[in-house]
Amino acid sequence: MKKKSIFLIAATATLYFNNAYAQETPQDSAKISSIDQIVITGNSNPKKKIESSTAISTFSSKEIQKQNPISAAALLQRVPGFAVETSGGEVGNNLFARGIPSAGAYEFVQVQEDGLPVFEDGALQFANADNFFRVDNSVNRMEALRGGSGSIFATNSPGGLINFITREGTNDFRGTAKLETSTYGLMRTDVNVGGALVQDKLFFNVGGFYRTDDGIRKTGFKANNGGQIRMNLKYVFDKGYVKVYYKKLDDRNTFFLPIPLVQNGNKLKGFQNFDPNYGTYSYRAISQLNIPQAGGGFFNRNLEDGIHPKVDVLGAEFKYDLGNNFSVLNKTRYTNINMNYTGIFPAGGPQTREEFAKSNGIAGNNYQYSLVSNGAVVNPEYVQKLGFWAIDKQMNNFVNDLQFNYKFDQGNVTAGFYKSNWKSHQYWNWSNILTTATDRPELLNLVDTSLSPSDTGYSKTYNGVTNMTFLQRDTQTQGSLNDLYVNLDYNITDALSVNGGLRYSHDYYKGNFANTTSSNLNNSGLTTDGTHGFNTTTADDNMSVLGNKYTYWNYNVDKVSFTLAANYKINRENAVYARFSNGFRSPNEEAYYNYFSNPNPDKPLKSVTTNQLEVGYKYYSRTFDVAVIPFYSTLKNLSFTDIFSDGKSENTFANTENYGVELEGYARLFNNILEVTFNGTIQSPKYKNLEAGSVLEGNVVRRMPKFYFNISPAVNITKSWRAYVSMNYYGKRFQDEKNVQTLPSFTEFGAGMSYQLGKIRFAVDGTNIFNTIGITEGDPRAGSPNGDGIIMARPIMGAAARASITLDF
């Protein structure tokens, strides 16, 4: 792979020097001018970007095409204020907005498609929002709002809104077809077509993709396999329009989790027999699980299914001019999701064979390891206990957003009612397995040689399983949201405008969970090997059994969010603004479970409240785009709900304070021959105003870099040739609240080039071309970290390259 990376760099450099003196004006600029760019996210009406008193970044379909992000998270890395962890693979990644810490997922931002949520809560357990949407050629543009008015136009979104806006047909029939391959076995096809069925009246658009690949990390099976299709039909009449649409997603993705590394201060290297760039514990040889259950029957699972959501979305949008400057807009959507989620979650780090045997009650050298595959006796230096976690989720969400708008000479006012009902029913079945601590792990059995095969406790495993179904959950959570909101835009003068918004949330949450007991298979009549009963193994000693009694709970939220802002347009190219906003996030799903499963909770269950103040300067011209946005935020009642490897949940509360500045820029130089895109964030997120004597007071918020940025220069060598290099820097962080485990800073480079031949575009894109070992998180499920030595962490993917051909017609 290093040779391939070097080749990619050399090819890019050769291309540049061979054409360095070509001075033709390029036709393929990476970014259109923002002077007249219109944004809709976080605004009651479409508004010029320079006139919007929000911190918002926009990406057109052409910009997305040129970046060719390997995942939605990779695209969001280009947004200042968003610290994004991309190491999970195509899905299951984490986004932290403006230094707001969480257990992960998209907990404080809402991800939308066409102005409605992908799912109402984007941070349900094992249901990150990016599990349920994909970026393909049917996306027309993306708008990413930080803070600001997010809490007025959506729920649980004080950190911001991310809105993917899909293509619609026009009078001209147009289409795009793309074929893509890679160094990791990728075969992907994207197609999008749109046009008019009746000129000026009835329009359609259909698009989607199908993809299969082996994964950058070597799993031994197809790591990603599936695709999506979406279509819409829009009818335009004299006073408005009506649109209906449908989306089907059926995609299977491997989720990558921490692997062992060796850390010495800020230096990282691979653990023995484990490639840090391409290795993973999620491997074919340990992919099958089939175990009897204490309640009867068998439970089986296939790791190759990975994260496998089946998503059906049906929606409609209606707008009508009521006359006298009044209009009505209604958006409605129903989403149904069935997801099987299977992943390998390390249960701590590697242990020597002696340490693991001793921890399982085997004295001295009276242990024997053997391969489950063929029974051969082996002596691995290190072994690894891994969680084989299986989760099934059935989810649905009906949402309707009705709003009325009145326009007057100096502005407009919008009032709306937002209704959302959602349900999540989930079942967990978790076991632990024992493997070699290598990147092509093999299942191990362990026995106590001081005992005979018929003795109680002779074996510590059952076909490589150390803890059979040690955790089961059967839980249901429902939300019913009833929100009223109003937003006012008022132009005091042609240059000065003010904005104010208010949202009242009257929300209900309820649920239940099955109580559990423990049992074993000693009296089941089953055998471990056809001869010996389960009393000879400890693997079944603490099996979880679902009971027929349920605990029921409910929780109500009555909260008001508000914002106030002013925007002063100095001239056509310059503007300044200021905004204060107050918002909240309802308790997340694990917080409800923790609270209501504890008969004597020591902390009241509360929503997380936020206050944010931001000021900004924007400059947009034909040559430069610049945005500089200082911000300050505070959070109260922040709860951490990481689930540890033993199935217990963290239950830590904190308050935080953060101040920083977001930077975003774009330059077109030398007659558009050189383009430079830049975004960066400088911040200081800390735990503040905690209980007296708290050891966390003043510590840096966990997993939050103080400084991160992305810069991407591109050279339009001729009208047709284009080459770029990207640099992504992610600053030092701490894995834990106590600031014990350092996550070193890292820099990831990418490079690529494209050639436009008429309507055909050829492109090569390389990621992490120098094979950097960069860790985005440690192991949040391992409890207290211990600093240097062997650590568990989740690194970014190794070097890879993709090649594509795109036809526009």
UniProtKB/TrEMBL annotation:
Pfam families: Plug, TonB_dep_Rec_b-barrel. The keyword Cytoplasm does not apply. It comes from the Bacteria. Residues 271-765 form the TonB-dependent receptor-like beta-barrel domain. Its main location: membrane. Residues 1-22 form the signal peptide. Keywords: Cell outer membrane, Ion transport, Iron, Iron transport, Membrane, Receptor, Signal, TonB box, Transmembrane, Transmembrane beta strand, Transport. It is a multi-pass membrane protein. The keyword Membrane applies. It is found in: Cell outer membrane. InterPro entries: Beta-barrel_TonB, Beta-barrel_TonB_sf, Plug_dom, Plug_dom_sf, TonB-dep_rcpt-like. Residues 49-160 form the TonB-dependent receptor plug domain. PANTHER family: CATECHOLATE SIDEROPHORE RECEPTOR FIU (PTHR32552:SF89), FERRICHROME IRON RECEPTOR-RELATED (PTHR32552). Belongs to the TonB-dependent receptor family. This is Outer membrane receptor protein involved in Fe transport. It comes from Chryseobacterium sediminis.
